[in-house]
């Protein structure tokens, strides 16, 4: 931070949205300061999602969400190679399992076309069988959406932050905002003392309304919507190619089956409203249901072990759309309620917010981008363990090398806690969950992160 | 590429005893591969005593036992830091290690990759996912390989034999468990292990616990569970899920070899041979946990089968007789018989999931050829020999345990 603890722009919250905002404002030369309460970035909603890059084919027509998603989607594709971010071109199929759902398929195609998502077509039972031969024969028909893809949900925001750092931004972790007041300048109270700012951006995810209350009575209330997942081990990833989506209902997009960039397979998420904004607990009954539903849709899963389970909290409000507004007189921008599409939307949200900034606070420059490629964790691309120079594998399930772990703990933005280390390397995240390697990994991390 | 006589995957008790026996039988062209930086397998980090009595004539600690095993084959080609990545048909495997990617070709391959405990995830346990939840195997590595206590007041879940190894391991780093919790009405390890827990370690053992929920954000804060119809809360800063061993089959599930859903290990015949005749398997990879001594013996037996196979004196593995476990049995192995007989007395091993009293029967195509009353406990392996019988026209053996009503 600067000596005076003053920033032109402070972003509260290092989720994927905060990270993308940080990148955008850093690249404009504003040297933003990102404040994250957790020990590392992605301590909230962004640590547990489905990792899908959505086309927006089923998003509400004309919504801000749709435009941010589509902008975000385009920008991700445009920058991903320079940042070494993966793209698993799986495509998706919305699958109907009964007549009632079949009735809805034409509507889905029409909506996709209205949303300008091309190449979306109906597939009949036979075509479905050809595309996904291992799917249960109870699958009756579907809609093919070739543009839906799978990405790495942790490396993307990490790359955004790194690029922001390269452009002069500052990240403070373990820095919780607890209050503040405005007298022409913002005085934020934080766990690391007072920080003043010309402009505050609230990107606090599930704490969005609480942070908003520092500025004004929050015009929305966050009610976290939990989503639980079951991760099946590697052999499951060979059972299906496309992302299998259900025909959406009012409350959620329903249970999805999809591969991960890391070569596993997810079944989830659930959709459960809760008051607790912090704890994303799994529960056995729900996990069992997910396993059963997964096996019902993809019978081959019966023979594959569960390797991991997790849950994430969607920052949902009483409104369907994103809650993004600027209050120029208060020098505050609200970026809240990024419920279930924030991974896709983040870069687009950042563009939109940059637009709001330019409209109210002044021109933004465009600096020549400095590219900061991140290590690859995606099984489709070459990984360090495959190096012809030799590999010293520490995590035997996910084949993570000593070099990868040491690198994630070093440099100008090392992993801040155990979770951060796992998200940056995948160590201890495989089928044995650290039986073989956790002592070794923690020995490498000793003195470098708080455990 | 050179074709080795034998490549052994895994330098634990099973793999190393097989190597020693093959050496004794006159073989020298043997490569042993292990991904760790030291040979010995699990005993490497099992710092308490409990090993070696039958193999080396005295009770020793795991690390001493591991060293003895490694020393026995010091003149063989043991390559450490080599991870096997892929098993391919006809004795070809892909590895990586200090020299980068390598391909090994062997006439015969012995799979001896061992077993591990089931983590909280695969048990589908409820709750948050804080740091401080682990298995005994990980705890042992913290305590015995690094001299570290990852927590000070842990809660131990499970009462298998290994759960008492957990208490010993904790004691090594000066930590006392808050309690041991068991789902069943009685403890799994043979009594009086609960007396040992209570008296020697001062740790209360609570049976009949259900609905475990892990608490804590960032770090473990405790566990809630139900007991006698009431919800209970125990505070603690670590949770150790002990036992529920499963074969380390990450490689096998992605290979051409057939697995048995009962044992979760590879399907083998009476000669430790897998469904690809160039592969053999021994030790805990076959079915989860047995003692190191048992794994050692299996390694030895597999070595004899491999020796015969290299001599071309093993029966062909085509048209096998399938063996199926029914009734109260969770599994039986071998899962098939090969060759047309006559067989030596057939050795079967099985386990039950719950304590059962009943009759164990062997049926050849539905006709009973052997039976015996049995009192089976889940922690105890059931092993028996069926005298040599003519099975030349048999297609199917059924091993059944029907509980006495
Ligand atoms: C189950 C599930 C599945 C999903 N699947 C997908 C998908 O497939 N594709 C997709 O595009 N999107 C998906 N999403 C949505 C996506 O994950 C979210 O939209 C996104 O993570 C929201 O990011 P955020 O930055 O707004 O919030 P968060 O990630 O919650 O970030 C907010 C950050 O602010 C920090 N913070 C909070 N309070 C303070 C404070 N007082 N001081 C400092 N810092 C603070 C928190 O620690 C947190 O790190 C899914 C979400 C869930 C839960
Ligand atoms: C906590 C604990 C306490 C125990 N206490 C006792 C006791 O007191 N007395 C007793 O008799 N038994 C005890 N046992 C059981 C005993 O340790 C095991 O039965 C024995 O080690 C099994 O031998 P194994 O050779 O089958 O497998 P392991 O010992 O597990 O060896 C397998 C080897 O294979 C290697 N490997 C696996 N996959 C690969 C791969 N892909 N590439 C390369 N190498 C690979 C591993 O690194 C390992 O070295 C205990 C076990 C545990 C876990």
Strand residues, percent of chain B = 25-35%
Overall CATH class of the largest domain in chain A: Alpha Beta
**Unreliable runs of chain B, pLDDT <50, ≥5 residues?**
none
Main beta-sheet annotation of chain B: 7 strands, mixed
Q: What Rg of chain A, in angstroms, do the CA atoms define?
A: 22 Å
Q: In CATH, what is the homologous superfamily of the largest domain in chain A?
A: FAD/NAD(P)-binding domain
Most extensive interface between two protein chains, with residue counts: A-B, 51 and 43 residues
Q: Specify the helix fraction band of chain B.
A: 10-25%
CATH architecture of the largest domain in chain A: 3-Layer(bba) Sandwich
Bound molecule types: flavin-adenine dinucleotide
Given the helix and strand composition of chain B, which structural class is it?
alpha/beta
Portion of residues within helices of chain A: 25-40%
CATH architecture of the largest domain in chain B: 3-Layer(bba) Sandwich
Overview of this protein structure:
The complex is a heterodimer of chains A (451) and B (405). Chain A has 451 residues and is of the alpha+beta class. Chain A has 3 domains: 6-50 and 154-220 and 319-360, FAD/NAD(P)-binding domain (3-Layer(bba) Sandwich), CATH 3.50.50.60; 92-146 and 223-316, D-Amino Acid Oxidase, Chain A, domain 2 (2-Layer Sandwich); 384-445, no CATH class. Helices cover 28% and strands 22% of the residues of chain A. Chain A contains 11 helices and 21 strands. In chain A, strands 1, 2, 8, 9, 10, 11, 18 and 19 form an 8-stranded mixed sheet that branches. In chain A, strands 12, 14, 15, 16 and 17 form a 5-stranded antiparallel sheet that branches. The two termini of chain A are 26 Å apart. With 405 residues, chain B is α/β, with parallel strands linked by helices. Chain B folds into 3 domains: 3-117 and 245-314, FAD/NAD(P)-binding domain (3-Layer(bba) Sandwich), CATH 3.50.50.60; 126-241, FAD/NAD(P)-binding domain; 323-403, Immunoglobulin-like. Helices cover 19% and strands 34% of the residues of chain B. Chain B has 7 helices and 28 strands. In chain B, strands 1, 2, 5, 6, 7, 8 and 20 form a 7-stranded mixed sheet that branches. In chain B, α1 runs parallel beside α3 (62-72) and α1 crosses α7. Chain B is globular, with a radius of gyration of 22 Å. The N and C termini of chain B lie far apart (61 Å). The model of chain B has no long low-confidence stretch (mean pLDDT 94). Chains A and B meet through α7, β17 and α11 of A and β10 and α4 of B. One flavin-adenine dinucleotide binds next to α1, β3, β6, α4 and α5 of chain B. The site of one flavin-adenine dinucleotide has 42 residues of chain A, from α1, β17 and α8.
């Amino acid at each position: 931070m600067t000596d005076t603890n003053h920033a032109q722009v402070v972003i509260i919250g290092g989720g994927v949205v905060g990270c993308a905002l940080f990148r955008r404002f850093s690249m404009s030369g504003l040297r933003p300061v990102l404040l994250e309460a957790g020990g590392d970035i992605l301590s909230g909603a962004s640590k547990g999602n489905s990792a899908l890059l959505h086309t927006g084919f089923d998003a509400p027509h004309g919504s801000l969400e749709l435009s941010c998603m589509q902008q975000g989607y385009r920008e991700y594709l445009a920058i991903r190679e320079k940042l070494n971010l993966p793209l698993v071109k799986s495509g998706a199929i919305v699958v109907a399992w009964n007549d009632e759902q079949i009735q809805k398929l034409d509507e889905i195609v029409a909506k996709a076309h209205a949303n300008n998502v091309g190449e979306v077509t109906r597939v009949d039972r036979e075509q479905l069988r050809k595309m996904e031969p291992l799917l249960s024969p109870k699958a009756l028909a579907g809609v093919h959406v070739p543009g839906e893809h799978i990405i790495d949900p942790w490396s993307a925001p990490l790359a955004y932050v790194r690029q922001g750092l390269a452009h002069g931004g500052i990240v403070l972790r373990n820095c919780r905002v607890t209050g503040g007041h405005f007298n022409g300048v913002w005085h934020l109270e934080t766990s690391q003392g007072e920080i003043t700012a010309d402009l505050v951006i609230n990107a606090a995810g599930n704490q969005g309304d609480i942070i908003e209350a520092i500025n004004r009575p929050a015009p929305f209330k966050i009610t976290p919507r939990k989503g639980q997942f079951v991760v099946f081990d590697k052999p499951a990833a060979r059972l299906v190619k496309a992302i299998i989506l259900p025909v959406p209902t009012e409350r959620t997009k329903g249970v999805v089956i999809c591969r991960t960039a890391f070569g596993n397979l997810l079944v989830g998420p659930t959709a459960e409203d809760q008051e607790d904004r912090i704890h994303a607990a799994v529960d056995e009954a729900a996990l069992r249901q997910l396993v059963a539903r997964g096996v019902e849709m993809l019978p081959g899963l019966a023979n594959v072990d569960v390797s991991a389970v997790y849950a994430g909290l969607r920052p949902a409000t009483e409104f369907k759309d994103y809650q993004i507004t600027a209050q120029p007189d208060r020098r505050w921008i609200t970026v809240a309620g990024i419920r279930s599409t924030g991974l896709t939307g983040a870069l687009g949200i950042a563009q939109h917010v940059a637009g709001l900034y330019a409209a109210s606070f002044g021109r933004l420059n465009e600096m020549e981008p400095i590219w900061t490629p991140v290590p690859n964790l995606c099984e489709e691309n070459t990984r360090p363990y495959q190096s012809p120079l030799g590999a010293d594998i520490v995590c035997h399930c996910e084949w993570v090398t000593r070099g990868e772990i040491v690198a994630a703990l070093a440099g100008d933005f090392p992993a801040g806690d155990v979770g951060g280390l796992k998200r940056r390397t995948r160590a201890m995240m495989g089928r044995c969950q650290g039986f073989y390697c956790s002592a070794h990994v923690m020995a490498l991390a000793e003195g470098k992160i708080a455990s | 590429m050179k074709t080795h006589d034998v490549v052994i995957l895994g330098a634990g008790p099973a793999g190393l005893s097989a190597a020693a026996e093959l050496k004794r039988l006159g073989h020298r062209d043997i490569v042993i591969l292990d991904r760790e930086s030291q040979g010995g397998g699990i005993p490497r980090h099992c710092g308490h005593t409990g090993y070696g009595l039958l193999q080396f004539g005295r009770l020793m600690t795991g690390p001493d036992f591991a060293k003895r095993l490694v020393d026995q084959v010091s003149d063989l080609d043991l390559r450490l830091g080599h991870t096997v990545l892929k098993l391919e048909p006809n004795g070809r495997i892909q590895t990586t290690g200090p020299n980068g990617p390598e391909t090994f070709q062997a006439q015969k391959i012995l799979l001896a990759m061992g077993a591990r405990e089931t983590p909280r995830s695969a048990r589908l346990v409820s709750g948050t996912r804080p740091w401080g939840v682990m298995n005994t195997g990980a705890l042992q590595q913290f305590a015995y390989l690094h001299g570290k206590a990852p927590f000070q007041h842990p809660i131990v879940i499970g009462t298998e034999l290994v759960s008492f190894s957990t208490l010993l391991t904790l004691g090594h780093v000066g930590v006392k468990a808050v309690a041991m919790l068991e789902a069943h009405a009685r403890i799994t390890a043979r009594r009086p292990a609960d007396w040992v827990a209570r008296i020697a370690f001062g740790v209360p053992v609570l049976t009949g616990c259900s609905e475990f929920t892990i608490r804590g954000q960032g770090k473990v804060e405790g566990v809630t569970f139900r007991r006698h119809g009431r919800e209970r809360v125990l505070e603690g800063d670590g949770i150790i899920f002990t036992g529920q061993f499963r074969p380390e089959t990450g490689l096998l599930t992605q290979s051409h070899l057939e697995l048995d859903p009962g044992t979760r290990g590879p399907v083998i015949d009476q000669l430790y041979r897998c469904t690809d005749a160039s592969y053999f398997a021994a030790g805990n990879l076959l079915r989860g946990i047995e003692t190191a001594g048992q794994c050692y013996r299996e390694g030895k037996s597999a070595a004899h089968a491999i020796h015969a196979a290299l001599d071309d004196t093993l029966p062909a593995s085509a048209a096998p007789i399938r063996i199926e476990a029914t009734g109260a049995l969770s599994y039986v192995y071998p899962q098939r018989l090969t060759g047309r007989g006559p067989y030596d007395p057939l050795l079967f091993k099985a386990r039950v999931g719950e304590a059962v009293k009943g009759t164990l029967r062997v049926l050849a195509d539905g006709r009973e050829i052997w039976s015996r009353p049995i009192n089976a406990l889940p922690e105890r392996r059931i092993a028996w020999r069926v005298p040599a019988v003519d099975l030349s026209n048999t297609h199917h053996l059924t091993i059944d345990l029907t509980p006495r009503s």
